[in-house]
Amino acid sequence: MSGYYESSYVSRPGILTAVGVGSIIIASISLIVDCGGLGFADIVSQLAARGRATSVVNSAPPPLATAAIAQYVAPDGLSAGQRKIVIAGLCQVRPLSDARQKQLDALLADVGQQVIQLSADNLTTDRVAAYVTDVRNIPNGSGGPSGSGGPADDLFILGSGRLQISDQSAVFFAGNSPSGIRSQGGSYTDSSGTHLASEQIAAVVDRVQSLCGQGQAMNDAQLKALEGELESPAQTLIVPSPSVAEAAEQVRSVQAMGDGTIALTTNSASMSFGPTGEPFGGVVAASRMKWAPPLVAARDTTLLVLDAILSLAAAGYLLACGIVVLRNLPASRWMLLGYAIGKMLLAVLSCYSIYEVTLALDASSPDAKSTAFAWMMMLGTAGIVYPMVLLIVMNLKLVREFLGTPTVARIF
Length: 412
Description:
With 412 residues, the chain is an alpha+beta fold. It has helices at 14-59, 67-70, 80-93, 98-115, 125-131, 198-212, 220-231, 244-248, 286-290, 298-326, 331-361, 368-380, 385-393, 397-404, and strands at residues 132-138, 153-158, 161-165, 170-174, 181-182, 251-256, 262-266, 270-273, 279-281. The strands form 2 sheets. Strands 1-2-3-4-5 form a 5-stranded antiparallel beta sheet. Strands 6-7-8-9 form a 4-stranded antiparallel beta sheet, with helices on one face. The protein is rod-shaped. Mean pLDDT is 78; it is low at 1-7, 53-70, 142-147 and 185-192.
């Protein structure tokens, strides 16, 4: 009797076999790569933590000097409160414009004790007014300090000498001396108008040394570097001032770093001087200028570590999926579809963390953004290729029918 035998078994499609074998191979490679990625993420996290710690210790602007030392007073100068008393006393005798009061204040800050020879206890507005014996007008341009032909200068005859004030300067002639001490020009500014005067440089250096504190003062190399910086016409630390005291008072604070660096902050700029005198801009230790850990945001390092951990877990899951596929289990289809969707979502996290971390690590490069984008495309988007293949293959009709057949649970 003729007839035929129909097998109850269905042959596994070759493409499904390829998926099972390919999943095992890709998962094995991914496990090795992701272990390395996790190690890299840990290194970046540690470096970023060190960078943030260094930034807090060495790069943060130091606190401002306390009020007790913020005010600089020249050896022969008067304090701010004393200068107000003197100006108020002279204004009782003759009113002065704001411009002339400013010039007078600068002169008093430098040599106020020579101008008004009254003790601190006797320094009152009325006594300053009584200290004036005469007031005159001096035509501007006839021997006055400015010589510009403007409004007449105010000339105060004092018990100590003559005080002549204009809108541009103030000058004091002690006794009958023909040589005056000026708030602008003379011994307190450079005649060329391009450099700080030596008196101002010396006052600024003394101010820096006094703010350093005992045992932390600038060494000889640092002092020489600071003086050289202040002597430069291009210096920006100290704004040209008509007064030695005003120039020195621009130094707001000084900070001694742990490696011997001295950093100073003025009203207009900040600068640091290394232990051997090397100058560099900003408030930062010299040791940090040699190599600084990358400043990667804590959020980005956390996401990078999380991405590495999830990628490692996904690789292990894919390995299990490959084994299940080769055992012809119906659940393998849904397992691989779940892997594909999850891996594609994980690729979004990978792209973001890789881009941000690479951008931070290469922040000093002008091509940092393009480099970060290139790494994101190579490493981040590469992870979605195989998941997309799985989405297509696992939805093929022959695959669905094979894994939906009751006999496929058997190994053959």
